Description:
Number of strands: 20
Mean pLDDT: 94
Number of helices: 13
Radius of gyration: 20 Å
Distance between the termini: 40 Å
Largest sheet: 9 strands, antiparallel
Strand content: 25-35%
Shape: globular
Amino acid sequence: MQESFQEHLKDYAELIIKVGINLQKGQRLLIRAPLEAKELVRELHIAAYRVGSPLVNSLFQDEELGLIRFQHAPRDSFEIINEAYVDTTLAAIRRGDAVISVIGGSPDLLKGQDPELIAKASQSYARYAKPVSELITKNAVQWCVVAMPSEPWARKVFPDKAPQEAVEALWQAIFSSNRLFNVDPVALWREHSQNLAARCDYLNSKNYEALIYKGEKTNLTLGLAEGHIWQGGGAQTKEGLSFIPNLPTEEIFTAPHRFRVEGVVGSSKHLSHGGQLIEDFSLEFKDGKAIKVSAKNGEAALQKLIESDEGAARLGEVALVPHSSPISQMNLLFLNTLFDENAASHLALGEAYKHCVKGGEDEALFASAGGNKSIIHVDFMIGAADLDIDGLRGGRLEPVMRQGEWAFEV
């Protein structure tokens, strides 16, 4: 079994390098990862050098040190951030390096810590890292977010298993969601990306004014940005290099209009954000702004989130995912946005992607089209088997999703 795991780990690294970031010969690579990811990071180094990268640099972080800070640091020190981590990443992007971010920390690492201090630290980091997030959202270079299990995360997903068994089970779920149990996962991913692109083409041809959501917890009218562009699967840099920003991915997405969202939307999965778990929550929107939030647990954290800045209470992304997606069919609550967002249709509070609006690189045009600006971008899941979505065009409604599934063929 260990030999099989090592082979799958090598396949995973190869998929990330060849499909995720499509690393080019002669291009440098930056990997940002937790300490626990060292085995995967080593395989990524090998795979990167095999395609001709001249240098791979890795930045490791220990999330437990973050918890130690909240437990012991002076209460007035949480506006200070680790500039070196951001500066290294910014320099790499400006140089043209590809960037891989490996995630997999504990979903509730900061449970019980002061939400006021967590919000302050998160906002300070987001403000300082804004140049990085702007270049990433512009696809200045190839970038990809991938995952590996940590023991705390695995125990949350598989609470009935022994710690090591839970980690092994989570690895298997990650490998499966990335289609690694197939003869040629690289070719399969390229085919999957083309299918998502075809769905984007269909919706772009429709140019809907709004999407109408109806479900047990949701009754929402969501206006779309003027000149919005549906994207999904793969993306392209300004030089035309293809890559897949998230592995796995099952979504197609675009930009909402920041002033044209009305109604109530309820979560279908818990949200793990900033080391806190927000459970069974809803948001009420008026004139595009979340005016009321409620949650079974984590309501204070959710309230702090939408108060991060003026744009944090507005939507920056609308994404569609069929309820029958492979990740959804696993019937697992991953408590990790990378996976849970690809098991369900979702929305995001905060920053909109400029490449989802025609001419969006022009700040004035982006704003006039309805694009939202914020220091945050936080996805939350709303898709379920009872969710119907219609597209509004010229006063008429056309089915987009029925009972959580696509209502059109491509």
